[in-house]
Amino acid sequence: MSVSLGRSERAAAPTQPPKPRGTGWSSLFFTVIALVGSFHALLMLGVEGGRLIYTNREIARLEADVGTLQVEVKTLQAIVEHRNDPVFREQLARSRGFIYPDETRILTRVP
Known about the structure:
Blueprint: H1 7-12, H2 25-81, H3 86-95
């Protein structure tokens, strides 16, 4: 006696469990790609962090250079503005070590 099973009975009949997806080579491939990508992202974060530190250091150095140059520009502008003032010219010459011919320079040593 042969019994024929209907469609719903065939579906309910025990069969092999389905093979889980993502096993085998594809799972290994995607794992390796994820690890390499994560390593690359961390490496790039380190590189960009180093660039940020270097850039901030250079900006601070250049701002200090600009400040020094601005002081020098103000000094030179004062010299140009007072170029015909004899008192200013004498003080400028004395600050650079010049003396009149009839003057004697006296140097003192600090112990």
